[in-house]
Amino acid sequence: MSSTKNLRERIIASARIAVEELIKIAKEPIINHDEETPSLAADRLKNAAATKRLVIFDALDILARIDAEEELLNSEQDGPSKTDTKQGFAERRSR
Prior knowledge:
By secondary structure, the protein is mainly α. The protein has a domain at 1-28 and 39-73. Helix content is 72%, strand content 0%. The relative contact order is 0.12.
């Protein structure tokens, strides 16, 4: 079990690095204001903007999954909670 936990922790660390790389991509300007660069066509601008949007949403999805995995790891360390039983609310409260 500890090897699985170790692998999950390494995956989480790698995912954090991936999010940092996606942030770098999202920060890059779509249009460079160089005189050497010809003006971009509208379809290329649209594709670049769509790519930025995709990068941002991918980073947010990865962060959400990181949070879920960290919560799962923490709950595994703490052990099962009182509400993790197969009993319903009334059965737990009847004691």
